[in-house]
Amino acid sequence: MGMMFSRVCQHALWAMIALAKAWQSRRWLKAAEIADTFGLPEPMVAKVLQKLVQAGLVQSQRGPKGGFRLRRPPDAVTLLDVVAAVEGAPWLNRCVLGWVQCNEAHPCPLHDLWVPHRAHQREFLQKVRVSDIAITAHF
Prior knowledge:
There is one protein chain. This protein is mostly helical. It has one domain (about 5-135): Winged helix-like DNA-binding domain superfamily/Winged helix DNA-binding domain (Arc Repressor Mutant, subunit A, Orthogonal Bundle), CATH 1.10.10. It contains six helices and two strands; from the N terminus they run H-H-H-E-E-H-H-H. The longest helix has 17 residues, at about 110-125.
């Protein structure tokens, strides 16, 4: 079973890629610019960017020369940082079958099989940096 990101999480990752590409020039990007780049609705991108601002990954500036940019270099931000910002920190600990009471004491049918994979997913998300995926992105 592969890792699946929610649509909101996908949009956050795309926004972070765009912001990483603009990092060197220290350019502020507008939500509309990011939305247009990926063919996304601007209100959805703006909402995702606000979550990233609240998590301390992105900074925002109002005004005609404002917009959004990364708060830290793209090689200092992991995919786990981004996922946790939009999905919440316990995202990886949720039951894959959606059971509310799934835990060691009351496991769902997949629990014991899934736990090792969950650890690998966390490790992967902690290892991969936004810079790693931005460098291969072409748009």
